[in-house]
Every structure is written in structure tokens, then in C-alpha cells.
Amino acid sequence: MGGIPGTAGASQALLAAPQGLFNYLVSGNYHNDIYITDHFVNSGGVHVEALDISLEYAIPTQNLGTFTLGTNGTNLQHFLFAALPGAPFYEFAGYSTNTQTEAGSFSKFSFYTTLDWKYHQWETTVGNSYMSSMTDVGSAAPLTYAPANYLLNHPAVTVGYYTSWDFQEAYTFEKVQDAGWAGGLLGGVKLAVGVNNVFNRMPPYAGISQAAGNNNNNVDTATYSPIGRLLYVSASLKF
Questions:
Q1: In terms of Cα–Cα distance, which of 105, 80, 82, 83 is closest to 94?
Q2: CA dist., res. 161 & res. 1, Å (int)
Q3: Within the chain, what is the greatest distance between any pair of CA atoms?
Q4: β-strands 189-196, 134-136: how paired?
Q5: pLDDT score, position 188
Q6: Backbone phi, then psi, for 7, in 5-degree steps?
Q7: Phi-psi bin for 6: left (phi > 0), alpha (psi -120 to 50), beta?
Q8: Which has the closest alpha carbon to 97: 37, 62, 146?
Q9: Which among 4, 37, 45, 70 is placed 20 to 30 Å from 110, CA to CA?
Q10: How much is the mean pLDDT over the chain?
Q11: CA-CA-CA-CA dihedral for 11, 16, 18, 24, to nearest 10
Q12: 8-52 pLDDT, tens per residue?
């Protein structure tokens, strides 16, 4: 407010309080000099190509229950980023970075695979998490930073692949008619005990990218859990 934007003597004051616009309009100082400036625009662009995979295969047996093998995962083929309008798109898939604009771990392959064995009311599950290795390309200030350009003047440093194992044992109480209050209360209840990250595997070291900026952990805690081995007990009821 206060003159036409861009002209000599023009000034501005923010309408930051409730009823600020109304109060200004009735104050007597209004001279057709209200304007709106919006500085928030989408200046960059992202183009992602990925293949999501979900497979499950069950093997029922006559005397040994049912074995089920399943996996869910993603093949990140491209993660292209342009910081400014008209700027070229740079490839981030397969890199670990900590730039001003794109920061994180862009693993090309990530899967969670389970082997499940169900026998009567018992169920045993073994799970595996997997993320493929990446190239650590550090951090750079320019918005037009290209990960591949970093490798022209620096040696390639690998962020190792990551894998961890989970285990769960569960028992589901049957719903039995006329089984008394205990049978009615426990029928359909599933009790489980388990361990996530059985071997206490820590995230892979990324000393170049993840030690830069405000992250001094040397690992990407936004992608990998830093908790380590976790024991748990759970109960659920299926109606």
C-alpha cells in the first residue's frame, strides 16, 4: 500500500492483523493504492519414472499348512529435477545427495519380501528389507547442481546397500460357539510377538552427503530407521 508499485515514492505495508483490510478502507488513508504481490510460484520441475512390483505366491500343503512368498518393491528408473524454469533436468536416481533443492537417498531398487507359514492357528513370518547401493555425491550450493557433474572432479564414493530382517510369531484364537465367556472374549483375537531388524543393522554410511548442512549423522535418517533392533508385542481383533 502507498502508491503504485514500481513508481517513485511508492511504499508498502503488510495487512497482517485481523480486519486489517477493513480498517484501512475506512481509515480515510485509502487512495486506490491496494495491490497484491504473490512471490510463491512453482519455479522448478520433477519428472519421475518408476516401476512398482507386487507379487505373491501361495503354496498350500495337505499336512504342513500354507506357505506364502510375497514381495513389494519399486524400481526407480528416473528422478529428474530442474531447479529453475528453462533449466536442464538432472538425474538423481541412484545418488545420495544433500543439495539445496533435492536431498535424500534415491535408491534404484527397494523391496520388502516376506515368507509366511500358516498352520492352523499359528502363523510365522520372516521379512526382509532391501535397498540397493548408491553413489554419494555430497552437497552443493548452486540450484542447478547436477549429481553427475560432481563425479567429473571427485572420486565415486559408494553408499552401501542396506538389508535387514524381521520376524514375527502369531496365534489366532478360534471363534467357538458355546465356548463360554472366555471363548467368546478371545475368539478372533490375534496375539503376536516379533522383532524388527533382528540383527540390529544400522543405516549405511554416507559421509559426504549426510554430514553436510544440518545433518551431522553421516546417515540418511529420513530414509533409514536409526532405531535398530526393536522387540514388540501386539494384539488385534478381527470381527
A1: 105
A2: 56
A3: 90
A4: unpaired
A5: 82
A6: -100, 165
A7: left
A8: 146
A9: 45
A10: 83
A11: 0
A12: 555 566 667 788 788 878 887 777 767 666 666 667 788 999 999
